[in-house]
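hey so i finally got around to running the thing on that chain from the lab meeting. sorry it took forever, my laptop kept dying and i had to restart like 3 times. anyway pasting the input first so we r on the same page abt which one it is
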Amino acid sequence: MAYNRNMNTRPSFLAPLTTFYLLVPVPFFAFGWLRYPFDWLTAAIAILGMGVTACVLVPASRQASWDKLKPLLRSFWPALLLILIWTGLSGIGGFGLQNGDYKSHNALLKTLIFDAWPLRITFEGEVVNIVYYVGYYLPAAAFGKLFGWTAANIFIFIWALAGVWLSFSWFRRIGGNSREEQCWWKLLLGALVFCIASGMDVIGYYGYQTNPFEWGEHIEHWADVVQYTSQTALLYWVPQHTLAAWLVAGLTYDCLDDAHSFRYLGLAIAASVLWSPFGMAGIAPYLLGLLIVFVWKKQFRALFEFSSLPLNIASLWLAATHLLYISSNQYDFPSGLLWNLVQDRSKYVSTLVVFWLLEFVLLTGVLVWLAYEIRRHENGASKMQWGVLALASLVLMVLPLFKMGYSNDIVMRGSIPSLLVLWAFATRVLLDATQHLKHRRVALPFALLVLFLLIGSYTSFSEIGRSVYRMRLGPPALGTVKPMAEASYPHIVAQRIGLDDTLFYRYLGR
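ok and heres what got predicted. didnt touch it at all, straight out
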């Protein structure tokens, strides 16, 4: 069966390793931002969670042997090399071009390294709290406090690269791959789609903007008020949101197939609020879907197993603490239904329809068509997998109706999990279709799928091309990194200011 996975061949380390990775920043946040005794309580829960995952990872690593790893590495190395090169051009740590957002990223990392925690800056003559998604930065910042600016940048590159490799593993898992399918060219093709997948922005950009084909342009803003970001631009512009959203999307999907993974989900989500609350908002519909599946499969006992219940109860404290921190923001930015916020509603509606079509509707239609034709020749996707794709499409349809933030972060970042599901499903259908191209009914939708993916890849190749053309190695000179108050426009800095008179700063925060 092409889509159904062999449960006995599933790696046992991916879920605990992901949870461990996401929990690492939590103790740093606890001792940097929380007052006694909440700092010790929060850090203890995170360290306990990492200890539980380590108890799973250590035996799994002992079971590995060179004889088992050698054929895996032989198959995987082209895909891993591609991902290494792709990440090496991302700008993370100063490797490759650092896009515009890195003025703010570098300012935050510098402040985290050289200033005391919790972060406070002088902005417009006042000392204010900074409330931001610091999870991604904290391990590197802690390393930088010991060894300096350059060491912190090297660390954050290695840190991000580990997250990308984990994310690619989840991408394969969502796509339904099994060990029997570890053919090098299939893995390489999967890695290529993982790296460069995007909606057909170039068509929208051609229709809505001038000078459309200037190579290296950032073209994803063509629809103005809404944007779905390519895989490349996500990593090259906002890794702090992207990695956690990718990882939790994979772990949540895994729980649909294996209820035992539920023991890790609470801790992973609670930790990831500190990485990307918008990304976790994009996970929320899948949690509802997970509950429905548990009811359908009568797997409620998984919620109350001894291995799951204590960890998930403990995760409630982490989630509450992180949410109270994020909610202490002053929310000095536009939010609400876009229908009520735009000036030209007819233009908004017409743009939205084109946006839906180009970003995912046409692609999803071809995927359904092609998967149906494949099913004539072999077993296809399960009901659960079709349900996940339908849910992803529904989320992608609904998100552009809303706005939060000047750049509409809720749409750009809340869409990350659903886009990962879409691209993983597209990869799986693409690979399966290659086995049936002799059938004409398969060949036509296959050609359309390839065409749509190629058109979409222009977006990512434009980002990559810009990084290659302006390639540099090494972090920016410390003296060129501006203070946080000056690194972004004032209204962007204001989005990150927290209020003293909030539950977090009155009772929990320092």
